[in-house]
Amino acid sequence: MIPVPYNSIVCAAAAGGAREPLFRNPSASASASVYLLQFNCNRRRINTNNRRNNNNNFMDSNNNMRTESYLRHVDSRKLMPNGAGHIPHLKAVILGEALASEEDDLVLPSKEFSDQANVHSPEQYMEMYKRSIEDPDGFWSEIASQFYWKQKWGEKVCDENFDVRDGKIKIEWFKGGITNVCYNCLDRNIEAGLGDKVALYWEGNEPGLDGSLTYSQLLNQVCQVANYLKDIGVKKGDAVIVYLPMINELPITMLACARIGAVHSVVFAGFSAESLAQRITDCKPKAVITCNAVRRGTKPILLKDIVDAAINDSAKDGVSVDVCLVYDNPVALKREDTKWTQGRDIWWQDVIPKYPSTCPVEWVDAEDPLFLLYTSGSTGKPKGVLHTTGGYMVYTATTFKYAFDYKPSDIYWCTADCGWITGHSYVTYGPLLNGATVLVYEGFKNFMRKRMYFTTNIGLCEIDINVLRETHRVHSKTTRKNGFYMASYLPAPNYPDAGRCWDIVDKYKVSIFYTAPTLVRSLMRDGEAVRYLYALMFTVYLCEIDLRINAFGFWIRVSTHQHTPMTHLVSCGLPMMVEENLGTCLICIPFPKISDCKLCNGLKGTPSLMKELDKYVTRYSRKSLRVLGSVGEPINPSAWRWFYNVVGDSRCPISDTWWQTETGGFMITPLPGAWAQKPGSATFPFFGIQPVIVDEKGVEIDGECSGYLCIKKSWPGAFRTLYGDHERYETTYFKPFAGYYFSGDGCRRDKDGYHWLTGRVDDVINVSGHRIGTAEVESALVSHPQCAEAAVVGVEHEVKGQGIYAFVTLVDSVPYSEDLRKDLILTVRKQIGAFAAPDKIHWAPGLPKTRSGKIMRRILRKIAARQLDELGDTSTLADPNVVKQLIELSDS
Ligand code: 6R9
Known about the structure:
EC 6.2.1.1, ligase, AMP-binding_CS, 892 residues, binds ligand 6R9, AMP-dep_synth/lig_dom, 8-stranded mixed sheet, ATP-binding
């Protein structure tokens, strides 16, 4: 019996049968706009129902709102954005969509889409899935045969031991097969007639800076680099560290390594010198390849300086680097200003063009290593995830083709950096193996946003959203200057304005757009912020209030007898929280949420702000878009809806792909033409993947349930070991639940069999889709001479998904100070990278520990999230007073 991943009831619904979906197939309704309306209506219906239920008590005779009877009290404060609990005696009330259930929202692909899709129905999926599970060897070898193999694999397609109780964990696919990934990406496609097709488009940060390479041109450049590497003595199996920004030279270098059988280890160019040194020391590379500098905003980041420091550091550990190839990036730094070590450093442009543009392929075994990529774990030491050649090639190519419904005419853009696994599997290998045209974007940088103005009865308000912080730290201040309100705002990753993404989509006619929820949320906020400002402006106009803006939303203080603004906000459908104290009422409207306000619409055009609504998106055509994708963390339903409705014009399915550095490729993902989606769910397993949800004892749970997400049996793209530490590989992934691969993620399966990822269950924080081990941050903090101890936990963050919250105990007699706080954050930035900087340092005279000295992170998580009435049992603590002290220091 094979597990049935797709519930037959949903199949029927998706096929237009038994169950009436809440959201209709747009093709079934009169027009797309009708569909949109239904979409919004449904949201409203949920809100209106609430209202209707309380209708009698809702308004008093003067049409003022009766807050008590209307607002719904929330049992738990976990629904509030972090920081809201700062307010003493908070009485939290949330309105709006947060309480809606997403489980019954089915969004179906249009008939036109399904008809042309690679997998067009649940039945077709089920048939293929069944075969992939019942006959994996046949299924995968048929696909593998579409690639070039110098020699076919041996007897066994797959040879595995997946159970620690039966000995050493071993995963092998296509062993004995001789091939080369670079050959399959380039030469094979050129032979098939794609030589003149564009392989890579490159778009720089600065509008106007761009370029492109056809498959033939790309092969020539790859060969030149490959020849150079061979010339300096890089051989099959040797490691090469790549520390480059998103320029074409990054995928070129990866492919060049693959061509000669060298193992690339790409390090994200946002990592610090220390992190880079750690990776150099671990894999002892024959060469380091970098760039002198890259421009982020107006500031050049001196990558070469970071590499110099890292090489010095690793030399102290006895690992020397003989060659450092440096790409000259004059836009960021002049050659003559680049620090240079004669004899070791060499300019890319001085040597590479001199090498021949053909290079014979080094044929390798399917199980020979292709690359190393370090990822965070629950200890301070990053793990070198090792992927091999054959299985990874077959798996990334196949997942790319099906999850994005790839067609040869597509223009594909993945916003990930090649420094992460997404850039390996779905910027470089997966798409190029399919002969796709890939857009490489230099990357998002924070941009200087213009000021926003709005009028109120207290005068003209100016929202200064210019105060950008590299760190993305949650930080805000509101000042009143000359009668103007100024507020700092979280930076958004875009340049020169929030429309850049869609400008690029139109410029290249991008048809598949794959990105991360954090980016969706920050872009959505740009449009939504305007909508909010508008609603708010009107509210402010209605009564004199004290307005504050922080990272969580707009905070308004009004006196309790003034119900009009609240009524207005309610009519806008804005979710909000209210704290009522004697005579005053503090309202927080967390942004961004999609709202629809008759009142505001009625005033459309009065102040021009309304016109600004979503214009960053809608002023671009986006007609070329066909499929959207999301990766890195769970996408929250409101971001999903905005992505679907606004960006994709309610026309493009979203592939919410769940996978990991370790899995090499997609594991649970929609097949966009095959079935209905539920906003926020990664849906069903890919071919050959058997996800199981287990309880804490490792017992599989059937049907509707929540638990730990594990995978039964191997798949071709699985990682084979942790570099130099097979024991850690087994301990981390295969020992927690014997017989399974343990993902480290929690998961819920709903009544229809849809999978909902609920985040990490281990000590790993997911910040903007980047995995950061709490232990890594802690060890950076304690390296500071004045830090005695540190404990780091993740907290919910509106844009980044999770933020980093650090409890810090100082050495005796060191006073708390703002300078020290900054210094501690700087220490983490220096040691790991800016993206790992803590959002909050919470001074801790002591940490809550059990009598055996174990830190009780559960309690720290609750304190960080201000869920103070959910601290649970603290009686096992060695010193229960510690908790009280920590709570007292919460706002210091
Ligand atoms: C590809 C990548 C892996 C972790 C993973 C999970 C989270 C990734 C997700 C998702 C929910 C998705 N994650 N995609 N959670 N829905 N679509 O991001 O690899 O950097 O190794 O991170 O990211 O928690 O365990 P990696």
